[in-house]
Amino acid sequence: MVILPSMHITIRQLQIIEAIVQTHSYSLAAERLYMTQPAISMQMKQLEHNIGVRLFERQGKRIVLSSAGQDIHPQIQRLIANYDDLIEGIHAAKDLHKGRIKVSATTTSNHLITQMIAQFSKINKNITVVLKITNREALINQLQNFEPDIVLMGEPPAKLDLLSERLIPNSLVVIADPEHVLAGKKNIPLATIADEDFILREPGSGTRETIEKHFISKSTVIKSNLELGSNEAIKHAVSAGLGIAVVSLHSILLELEANKLVILDVVDFPINRYWHIVKRKGKHLHPAAKEFQDFILKESVLYMDSYKQFIE
Ligand code: PGA
Fold first, then answer.
1. Which residues of 163-194 are buried (b: 16+ CB within 10 A; e: fewer)?
2. Measuring CA to CA, how many Å separate 256 from each of 50, 62, 82, 168, 264?
3. Which of 133, 167, 195, 245 might form a disulfide with 300, Cβ 3.0–4.6 angstroms?
4. C-alpha 111 to ligand 1 mean position (Å)
């Protein structure tokens, strides 16, 4: 058995490292943590001396992680996330009906998750839900660092150790403005829409990845000269007649009702996917987060009805 020498490292020092990594500056890190710059420098000096590793180096005016610092940064992030969980757990243990839940969801699920949180908050007034909306790639990074308690996303990535449960369908449909020449046509061939200008989400979006794979699997190539970073922007651009797009049905219910957008009847569409509720294996859920998870599992089926009419 190898006995490693013990090292004195405090959680505060880890939080200082993270603040420097994010701000690239001792003074901004100090501001963020309500400390003075000399106090930050002293803590880092002491830590580097204790562990015998140089963590940062200067690149011009920016402070960046040294290569040894980069090697241990993921473990530091994980320890900070565990510490935050511990604090949440202590608060939650004092009162089962209090707590703060960190939820992350994909951009596409914005409408669905905010509706569910609104319902949950009505009956759990003392629980605070902190919601981060971001694209699939950023979500996977957050999961990698054990940041969120609960995640709502499309297909869970196979490469991470996750626990996931399938929720309701998340159909991807082709949309156009109601005046579009293809609006109202039946069984439009894939090759016909491939001739249209597509408006795509940014690289890193799960929706975009799925669309690209779908067209490749049908040996069809699409063209796009407009990339937009949100579903809202895509909806505006499509209803302004700038092109067609493929989006989740959940994100366009209001526009369909208001007749600002139409779904095109395209062969091999909709692409049928599902929403999943996901968490990292080994991530302990405090009681409030567990309550939220159970709520989502139970309630999500209620949201089926609102959009079933559009795909049947
Ligand atoms: P997106 O993700 O919002 O990044 O497009 C949807 C998904 O999780 O598949």
1. ebeebbbbbbbbbbbeebebeeeeebebeebe
2. 62, 49, 43, 20, 12
3. 167
4. 13
